[in-house]
RNA sequence: GCCCCUGUAGCUCAGGGGAUAGAGCGCUACCCUCCGGAGGUAGAAGCGAAGGUUCGAAUCCUUCCAGGGGCACCA
């Protein structure tokens, strides 16, 4: 019996009580089933009776009593107790608990998937680093979190389009080209230009491909530097991300959008909606009508649209391509953008509460290692991966809530010890894989599921492990719904600990030549079920689940 | 000045209204005739402050204090 099955049974008990006239008002929300922290409170607990108390004007314990009587009759429920202010503490029969192993084994890599968000199409944009420099640590967090979030959303039944906005228009491109041009000519880089070793490398490559370039008029060289430089940067960016295990479904070109007239069309739409006025030679949108603190320019006095005008056109494009919801991951340094963008969307006559979700994440600081002491240049994604590896990097970046600023300790994440959380989780997986290999070699492969007696899994540590495994689908669903991949990481760490405690207390393979005890066959399957959940969870984070390490 | 995020154990962090607030590291004391000790057991130690809402608040609201980030006809 899974927690979901139990929740359904409780809901049914409520319905029966309603039908029997014991209750006059039902539940207005889903049944809440939780694992009590204290084992004496049973395998599961529900606050259903307390939630029903007020609307029915009855005492919670009184309602709990009636629900308990009905639940005791449910197959698989061994005991129901009323405790505290009106909790129902429920204990499952060992066989009902053990049956979870069969569920997990049968679903395999699908265990954890739900249909929670089925039917939705979500456009998820993240990273979108400008092609004027390498992917650095500031982007890496969104690469790790965004990719994991995409996997989570897929696991809850929704359709995801992973999107990268390739920002190849605007003033930063001009500054980038000017910087390359200056370096190539041996001139000082302009005040507002880009510095860094990569500028020198890119300039050299462009010159290599166009040996005569510097003989051309400056107008022409800037054009070539812009075009070829962006091309080179973009290739490098895609390679860094791909080496990091992150790929996108759509790489969207800003330049093409301008060329297609989509930006113009969006301005026209806003004009028709009546929120536009002209002042100081520029075109303004009256975003103050939608709660912004001041109006915003959408077309500059020189006739070029501003970046958020383009961003709005981009939003429209995503919606027209079928996105029910446009989700964008941004760093905290962009938080001022949220209100503006919401106002712009409102200006189009859409409801940003329903169609736009901008997730603001806090930034990443580096500690430890030699990288943190370097002046000037930011740590690049490539350097991060070189320092601690892809698994540790992804795990470290995805393990904290996005609301928390991360202080990344490179020495810790590079270490191959249990201090390092990613090793703790991967180790548990490798340990189980090794155990199953040993078992097969000793003549104890995983037996046929139909032949094992799952009710023998009645040891306290087995019960705790089963309980933890049963939580997985709800953890995944909540992580997707709250856009909080770190919950999966934290869960895996707990699961690894729960497994180690079980392992410490319960013998799985026989000693030497001894005959296997009857509970060993189901235990092997319990191990396999745990391994599957660890592997499925790590996959959602984009981290490998090693067979040995 | 205005806006956003954060403040939980010595350190790094979980905890999205429920029972006695958790984990890892560090510290103290333990467990190897035993399937991977990269493990486990036990212990000391905490919600920034003050109000409020609620049967019940680390969680929601208000104020204050402290730290971080932001407030362009740049992106």
Describe this structure in words.
- This protein is α/β, with parallel strands linked by helices and 549 residues long.
- The protein folds into 4 domains: 3-92, 2-Layer Sandwich (Gyrase A, domain 2), CATH 3.30.1360; 121-167 and 248-361, Rossmann fold (3-Layer(aba) Sandwich), CATH 3.40.50.620; 171-243, no CATH class; 417-541, Isoleucyl-tRNA Synthetase, Domain 1.
- The chain is built from 20 helices and 14 strands.
- The chain has a 5-stranded parallel β-sheet with strand order 7-6-5-11-12, with helices on both faces. Strands 1-2-4-3 form a 4-stranded antiparallel β-sheet. Strands 8-9-10 form a 3-stranded antiparallel β-sheet.
- Strand 8 (276-279) and strand 9 (282-285) form a beta hairpin.
- It is flat, with a radius of gyration of 29 Å.
- The mean pLDDT is 93.
